[in-house]
């Protein structure tokens, strides 16, 4: 239960850590880029509508300038130069009506210097009226060809003899007209001005210029006066023309400034309203250019979808990383558990080995040395008590002496097995050599021991004992399990600060994975114990063994050398 609680805590802490380290920054980055792309899209739309508005202004102004050139061309017509009298005025008016229809003009008026109307294209029979005096007629009679935009009411148009009839919508209370005026010179004296020609193209009737702008910019274009919309040209199918707010029109016309509107939504619009100035320089209308936000929205949405896709991929990777880390943590926890279990079993094994060694020593002392000494004691007690002759007593004394010698040898052998005297002097070479000699005496298997004599290995007390026990345990494993016929071992340097002992045999070998996995379930901890002992001295052990191909054991550890 405790371990399950710990694993749950680890999962929760891991989730919190990954969220803080990866998920939160990733989410913030996606949110930032979504806002960034939205902002950049709006900036791009605003920049493009500004550029389109400038182009529209140039095209519109070119159309206005065209009226000046047309007025000058009409002023140079031969028929205009030869006008005189009522009959000629009517005839000239009819001729001007044909030309006006060809040039898409709505009004062509010829006047003399006193503003008396001499000919009209829109009303050929209506003559002798006075044409209203204004800035452009004064300029024309002064010898200058001029052009501009003019706002006119129905009464003003009627005063000029124009009857819109069915050509003007009934709700139209004012019109915007492109006006051009040019002086008419005497045909005999080119310096003398005898009249002027005034041309009008009413945008309420002929909004061709709006269509030109719309086609050139692929945008909706509309023209507004103070009373409302004058004309429009739609290019965006399925998206009704969005009328500007009344306050926008008022702002443009009163302050003579441009106003942009950017609404990035399905039914929004990207537009700019430009002031249209009259002859006096004051705004008389508003030119509006509008583009559909659809393409910008698609680009923005595509970028956002890509970002969201990247976020989802990143989130999936986050889950994969979390699973991998969790699996790694669980593997490390399991490995730590196994290591703790190995240590526990090793500790038990060491305690058991200590008890077995004590038991063995006790039995050896009791079964051999104590028994032998008891026999000696008994024999010495009976030498002079029961034997009458000296020769018999001497013989028994010799036998007792032999038993004492044997007991001393047994004690010495037992002491040497527990602690070789060479090891106390830290003579590692002598200690290992004695181990090999005893192994050969006990097993009859030859041991080829190799030593690097040029560099003498110097070990501290703890390292020396552990190295000796490792070599001893390796030989014991060969004795118990290998069935080897040949063993080789050695001690030598590997690098400037490391030494190595090795033991190789030609025995039956074993399957490494099988032995290591079985070791935890059995009381035999030989290989695990050797590995733990190597780790105690900061070294490492490599074992290579295959069934039928012998075993190779290499143990590397820190050491110092004397040349």
Return the average pLDDT rounded to an integer. Answer: 78
Please give the share of residues in helix: 55-70%
Give me the oligomer status. Answer: single chain
Number of strands: 17
What structural category do the secondary elements indicate? alpha+beta
> What distance separates the N and C termini?
59 Å
What characteristic shape results from the CA principal axes?
rod-shaped
Low-confidence stretches: 1-5
Number of helices: 14
Biggest β-sheet: count, sense, barrel?
Answer: 5 strands, antiparallel
Radius of gyration: 58 Å
In the sheet with the most strands, the strands line up as 2-1-5-4-3
Assess the beta-strand content as a share of residues: 15-25%
